[in-house]
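Exercise: predict the fold of this chain.
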Amino acid sequence: MTTKNNEVSSWIRTILLAVIIAFLIRAFLFINYIVEGDSMLPTMHNGDRLVVNKLVYKIYEPERFDVIVFHANSQVDYIKRIIGLPGDHIAFKGDVLYINGEPYDEPYLDEIKANVQSGMYTNDFTLEEIIGKETIPDDTVFILGDNRQNSTDSRNLGVVQIDEIVGKVNVKYWPFSDFEFYH
């Protein structure tokens, strides 16, 4: 009977340890995220499943063009792309992104821009028109969805506080045919 009790006790400890490790990973390191909506087309599709790294911005600063998940409000998280960092000036003119006066290519938009009928994918705007300031304030980022014509982002929400960022998207794992690592 003692051997049987030891075996059961060992299984219980193993299962309990696995549950604790899973909880710690989810609480502090990574979360699963399911894309809802089409605001990140063509990069992400409705129903895509992602792994979001919650730890990265505790160690490193956000980087331009990172795809992130952030708290849009107390009930909803959004997924968008960081376009501007603190101190940057952002403008769109003639469907070209300008950061601090320099044009930037956005190759992740090539596929969706090719299908735009109107000729212009991102309407012209300046940071001043959006947030009333010349540069992005400290501790905030300017975010846009890749589907610029169907995205609630900094053009509507204003800048996002860095401490509202849940984490950086590291992996799209479902559907498996679209498996991709993000850096």
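Check your answer against the key: The longest strand covers residues 165-174.
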